[in-house]
């Protein structure tokens, strides 16, 4: 069984899972949080090197003030707890997204967590907070244009490598497997550039119920996929061949 080098997960379905149990949505988020800690440990023990999760999007601010407050308090608690997991798993943690839109104390916790984990290299864990794929691309283009104006970017066509280096995920390989829990089959503005050749796996299981067994199913399906990256199996690219 081949392990994906990088798994990305859209953590969806906390609210519906809780509602089905006759509980408030906030209960789903609490259990979703605990599950993230558990699954992050599991994924690390399996030997997967990169994990990226979508926790809060640039569009999630449309939710009620009450729910946003619950989520922000959970993130506060999680960022502190994550220092323990980072140490245990020898895991470097990075927050992707626009931290400027978050409360100052959350921004401080992010800096502390990133700082304390910066030398770990067994696993690399990215948490998308106040993240939007389009927002990330626009922020990257803005910085790239400014650097180009100052002559810091090679003249001419911008290469994929150069553009990559301006994204929040600079230095992180693209995901091999994207999992979305809870039945929806869309990207919801997650890693729009990075998912170009990623294999997608959608499951009806909501995030709080997504466990090691469900993860094994996703990896099994991933192993059945034939990744050709636009090429043809068994055929080597010919020199000077035109690519259609
Ligand atoms: C998706 O469920 C969950 C969210 C948008 C909230 C954030 C995720 C967590 C709290 C899990 C832990 C993450 C971190 C980083 C601590 P939903 O509310 O969209 O559920 P629904 O689709 O059923 O309404």
Automatic annotation (TrEMBL):
Its cofactor is Mg(2+). PROSITE patterns: UPP_SYNTHASE. Binds 2 magnesium ions per subunit. The keyword Zinc does not apply. Mg(2+) binds at residues 12, 199. Substrate binds at residues 13-17, 25, 29, 57-59, 61, 63, 180, 186-188. One of its GO terms (biological process) is polyprenol biosynthetic process. GO terms for molecular function: ditrans,polycis-polyprenyl diphosphate synthase [(2E,6E)-farnesyl diphosphate specific] activity; magnesium ion binding. The keyword Transferase applies. Keywords: Magnesium, Metal-binding, Transferase. Its EC number is 2.5.1.-. The active site is at 12, 60 (proton acceptor). It is an enzyme of class 2 (transferase). Catalyzes the condensation of isopentenyl diphosphate (IPP) with allylic pyrophosphates generating different type of terpenoids. Homodimer. Belongs to the UPP synthase family. This is Isoprenyl transferase. It comes from Wansuia hejianensis. The lineage of its organism: Bacteria, Bacillati, Bacillota, Clostridia, Lachnospirales. The gene is uppS.
């Amino acid at each position: 069984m081949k392990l994906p080098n990088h798994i990305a997960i859209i953590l969806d379905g906390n609210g519906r899972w809780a509602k089905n149990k006759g509980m408030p949505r906030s209960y789903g988020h609490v259990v979703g949080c605990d599950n993230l800690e558990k699954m992050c440990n599991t994924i690390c023990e399996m030997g997967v090197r990169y994990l990226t999760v979508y926790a809060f999007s640039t569009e999630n601010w449309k939710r009620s003030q009450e729910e946003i407050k619950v989520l922000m308090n959970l993130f506060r608690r999680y960022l502190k707890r994550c220092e323990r997991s980072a140490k245990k798993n020898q895991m470097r943690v990075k927050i992707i997204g626009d931290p400027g839109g978050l409360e100052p104390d959350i921004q401080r916790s992010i800096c502390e967590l990133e700082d304390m984990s910066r030398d770990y290299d067994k696993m690399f864990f990215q948490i998308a907070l106040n993240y939007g794929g389009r927002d990330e691309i626009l922020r990257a283009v803005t910085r790239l244009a400014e650097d180009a104006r100052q002559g810091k970017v090679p003249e001419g066509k911008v290469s994929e490598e150069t553009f990559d280096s301006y994204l929040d995920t600079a230095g992180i390989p693209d995901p091999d497997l994207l999992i979305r829990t809870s039945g929806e089959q869309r990207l919801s503005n997650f890693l729009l550039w990075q998912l170009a050749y990623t294999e997608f796996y959608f499951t009806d299981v909501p995030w709080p119920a997504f466990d090691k067994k469900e993860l094994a199913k996703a990896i099994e399906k991933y192993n059945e996929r034939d990744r050709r990256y636009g090429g043809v199996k068994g055929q080597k690219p010919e020199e000077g061949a035109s690519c259609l």
